[in-house]
Task: structure prediction
Amino acid sequence: MNHLEFKSIRKSLKMKQSELSKSIGVGTRAIQYWEKGERKIPETTAFFMRNLLSKKQKLTNEISPQTMSITSPVMNVHLVNQYAQAGYIKGYANRKYIQSLPTIPYADDIEHQDEYMCFEVKDDKMDDGSSDSYLVGDILLCRNIKPDLWVNKLQYNKWDFVIVHKEKGIMVKRITNHDLENNIITLHCLNDYYPDFEIQLDDVVKLFNIISIKRKNQRR
Result:
């Protein structure tokens, strides 16, 4: 690695010489020598710099909507965040209200004919400390299950669900039983503090299965 490439990578990383020196474990003067071409850049340092740049570029590709639009088609999915959930209960059938919600970009590798919605997790009822947990602040990409499919046995062994209930509001739950005869589903919280309970499907206005999760940071 020559001094010009080294300096170019540092600027791409948007790091000051003092910040980079701390990351590498050398003095600021060494950075200055390398960038002026007065000292040879060690192979280990060159590898470290290229690796840092590679990680930054990968992260940018994952989170940048602009980059996504270049590399692949993007579908913007409406988000019901924690603060909008009360309003969604009243406005879920109002197209104008749905269009007013913020959106989150997803790579368009999912089927367009389905209706998708994102929901933000607002409590710890589905957090038991395991890898299956849904944490507060997680964004759930969900696919709507049309009511005419509710008459069949729900595939609750395959999916977890977001349930929009007339009185209980928006709930993230695991379904453990579907009583077709009585039109009742049994809901389970991963957090053992909350007991299982049953609801009538007649009181459900929307039912979604959870397709994927976006986590703001890797807390586990």
User: Anything to note?
Assistant: The two ends are 36 Å apart (CA to CA). The chain has a mean pLDDT of 83.
